[in-house]
Specification:
The complex is a heterodimer of chains A (about 110) and B (about 110). Helices cover about 0% and strands about 60% of the residues of chain A. Chain A has about 110 residues and is mostly beta strands. The radius of gyration of chain A is 13 Å and the shape is globular. Chains A and B meet through strand 4, strand 5, strand 9 and strand 10 of A and strand 4, strand 5, strand 9 and strand 10 of B.
């Protein structure tokens, strides 16, 4: 299946821990993104990468570090997790015709 | 800040009726896109309409764009229970490759 796949689907962790979310797309898209959806359903871009290069960093705390080993993968590492990081994180990739989103990772920090 | 504001925030209609959702935005755009999000799921791309287009259709979906008013509408005709979801508009600004989302409309279709 052609898709954007992200893992894990659910992540529950304690404050202060470091965690990673992985994302892979097999659509051949050049551009990939991380979006955050908060408890009020607001979706906001965090990062975008084009062909492994960082294009957009939307004033995200530097505890969040994206890594793109190749254009099909964009992983998100979060250090020193805080309660406010609890949200659903979506990976996406795009062409000029639109975006394809992963199914999301629900992160709960306790 | 959110680029788009959607109206209404929530909408409940009987199955078979038409549903109309509106989106307003603030700046010039390259295109506007509509997405559906079922509860607890990811976003599904519905339609992309470019700034030089005024109307687009896809199945039971009809999208209009009025760049002079900086607004768009999504019409779902002959609604079905499976259309129950949140619907988001999102804009892509000229020369800027990112989507800025609206606040969403929660649509409930009553069987």
């Amino acid at each position: 299946d052609t898709a954007v796949s992200q893992t894990p689907k659910y992540l529950v962790t304690q404050m202060g821990n470091d965690k990673s979310i992985k994302c892979e797309q097999n659509l051949g898209h050049d551009t990939m993104y991380w979006y955050k959806q908060d408890s009020k359903k607001f979706l906001k871009i965090m990062f975008s990468y084009n062909n492994k290069e960082l294009i957009i960093n939307e004033t995200v705390p530097n505890r969040f570090s994206p890594k793109s080993p190749d254009k099909a993968h964009l992983n998100l590492h979060i250090n020193s997790l805080e309660l406010g990081d609890s949200a659903v994180y979506f990976c996406a990739s795009s062409t000029i015709y639109g975006y394809t989103f992963g199914s999301g990772t629900r992160l709960t920090v306790v | 800040s959110q680029q788009g504001e959607e109206d209404p925030q929530a909408l409940s209609i009987q199955e078979g009726e038409n549903a109309t959702m509106n989106c307003s935005y603030k700046t010039s755009i390259n295109n506007l896109q509509w997405y559906r999000q079922n509860s607890g799921r990811g976003l599904v791309h519905l339609i992309l309409i470019r700034s030089n287009e005024r109307e687009k259709h896809s199945g039971r979906l009809r999208v209009t764009l009025d760049t002079s008013k900086k607004s768009s509408s999504l019409l779902i005709t002959a609604s079905r229970a499976a259309d129950t979801a949140s619907y988001f508009c999102a804009t892509e600004l000229s020369g800027n490759e990112k989507l800025t989302f609206g606040t969403g409309t929660r649509l409930t279709i009553i069987p």
